[in-house]
């Protein structure tokens, strides 16, 4: 953490917090610290600065732990949270479901990732209006908790599309606070954003403009946000400085790229469970080449087209039959949303179809695992020959950055142009249009054929770019923008 960040109290707000709880068979509560850029970023300042992380309780165990904690602060209940103070909000179940599943994940996520299959969806009816009111209530609960917890002049870093309304809800009541909003997703172009019904789009934009600083992972998403503000609010946008003059205030829009936490990754990858997975995977794949993907089972990750490209490769280039295995790790995600469940089924079907068409007694072309295992993912990064990262749209995509960092022999990266990571890695990855299955199949072929020296040289440059923006710096930049 650079020294110039002042020592004001720091508050973070995000739907998913840095810790989660589970109840064991004997009824005891167990807790697990999460990973990710925000956790590493905040941990780096938590030792020297007063911090408070406000998040939602996401399970019964979370609710139980939160309700037992003195003043609702989990750190005060004795959990080791790396110096951060954490407050989990117990949002009523129906309110949470409507805010998180219906509005945030089935609507805003779809708009920003351009996922709608428009003849059927979206379908904004009276039920959606009610869900939107719950999204407002959920945002208000966060705003209230932050207002209660914030000292004079505190810095507040609000995260993501779940909490777009929070900055405005706080602004009028506490002008002393310095508020940032950061989006981890892409931002929709105006042509897509305008699908949102009534004044929902306006409320979202105005909600975020309650902040002093609004951050994005890529200039593409920042500029899309500026375009939406100019189009729907008629706000006065300065395109050179990325500022927005609206409602008597000037708000700054910034780009803060996020890279891999190389040190944390290497340390974790040195553990015994990763070594065991490495041997097991090596045994499974044998002498064959390995094409790897690691994702949440998520529509925006474009897993079905990625597999279709692998199928096309085997169909059109028989030399690869029996010579390459596609390991696809697709971790369960957002299972309460019907589209996610259907998508995971489509992923399973596609893998099965390819295996039915090409599999032999001693070769399974696609090995799909729909189960979360971080150690296994790290081990697979170490030995992959090709890493396929082909999202339809992605705020950044850290798999594309983490894979090369852990690669032992250099990995050839096939990367979608629509991932924020393509801004940083584009010159050494094989870039593909995520909708173009044939182009992706060709890129897989080129990646598999890449000579060792070229692959290793590219990998070295990918690593250099991937580690240039560690999470500590990314988070520090958000805070410094508020100075
Ligand atoms: O990338 C956006 C994001 O909300 C992250 O902040 C989060 O880690 C990820 O998607 C997973 O989402 P969820 O918390 O819904 O599982």
UniProtKB/TrEMBL annotation:
Gene Ontology annotations of biological process type: trehalose biosynthetic process
Gene3D superfamilies: Glycogen Phosphorylase B
GO MF annotation list: alpha,alpha-trehalose-phosphate synthase (UDP-forming) activity
Family the entry assigns: Belongs to the glycosyltransferase 20 family.
Name of this protein: Trehalose-6-phosphate synthase
Organismal lineage: Bacteria, Bacillati, Actinomycetota, Actinomycetes, Streptosporangiales
């Amino acid at each position: 953490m650079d020294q110039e960040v002042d020592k004001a109290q720091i508050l973070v707000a995000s739907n998913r917090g840095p810790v989660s709880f589970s109840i064991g068979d004997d009824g005891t509560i167990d807790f697990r610290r999460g990973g990710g850029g925000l956790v590493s970023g905040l941990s780096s300042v938590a030792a020297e600065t007063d911090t408070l992380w406000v998040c939602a309780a996401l399970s019964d165990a979370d609710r139980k732990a939160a309700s037992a904690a003195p003043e609702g602060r989990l750190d005060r209940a004795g959990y080791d949270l790396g110096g951060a103070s954490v407050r989990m909000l117990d949002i009523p179940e129906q309110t949470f479901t409507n805010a998180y599943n219906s509005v945030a994940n089935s609507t805003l996520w779809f708009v920003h990732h351009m996922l709608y299959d428009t003849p059927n969806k979206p379908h904004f009816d009276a039920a959606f209006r009610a869900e939107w009111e719950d999204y407002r209530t959920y945002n208000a609960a966060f705003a209230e908790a932050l207002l209660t917890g914030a000292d004079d002049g505190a810095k507040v870093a609000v995260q993501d599309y779940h909490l777009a309304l929070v900055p405005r809800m706080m602004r009028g009541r506490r002008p002393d606070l310095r508020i940032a909003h950061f989006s981890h997703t892409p931002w929709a172009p105006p042509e897509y954003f305008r699908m949102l019904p009534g004044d929902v789009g306006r409320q979202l934009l105005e909600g975020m403009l309650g902040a002093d600083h609004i951050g994005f992972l890529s200039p593409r998403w920042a500029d899309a946000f500026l375009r939406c503000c100019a189009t729907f609010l008629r706000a006065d946008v300065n395109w050179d400085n990325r500022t927005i003059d609206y409602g008597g205030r000037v708000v700054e829009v910034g780009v803060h790229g996020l890279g891999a936490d190389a040190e944390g990754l290497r340390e974790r990858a040195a553990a015994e469970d990763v070594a065991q997975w490495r041997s097991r995977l090596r045994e499974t794949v044998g002498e064959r080449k390995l094409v790897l993907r690691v994702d949440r089972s998520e529509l925006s990750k474009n897993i079905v087209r990625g597999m279709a490209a692998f199928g096309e490769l085997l169909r059109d280039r028989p030399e690869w039959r029996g010579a390459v295995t596609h390991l696809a790790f697709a971790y369960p995600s957002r299972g309460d949303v019907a589209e996610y469940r259907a998508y995971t089924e489509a992923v399973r079907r596609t893998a099965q179809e390819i295996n039915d068409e090409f599999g032999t007694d001693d070769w399974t072309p696609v090995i799909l695992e729909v189960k979360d295992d971080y150690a296994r993912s790290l081990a697979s990064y170490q030995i992959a020959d090709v890493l396929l990262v082909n999202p339809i749209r992605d705020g950044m995509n850290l798999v594309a950055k983490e894979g090369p960092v852990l690669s032992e022999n250099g990995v050839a990266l096939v990367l979608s142009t629509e991932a924020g990571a393509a801004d940083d890695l584009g010159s050494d990855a094989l870039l593909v249009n995520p909708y173009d299955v044939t182009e992706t199949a060709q890129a897989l072929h080129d990646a598999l054929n890449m000579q060792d020296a070229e692959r290793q040289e590219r990998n070295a440059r990918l690593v250099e770019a991937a580690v240039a923006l560690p999470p500590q710096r990314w988070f520090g930049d958000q805070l410094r923008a508020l100075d």
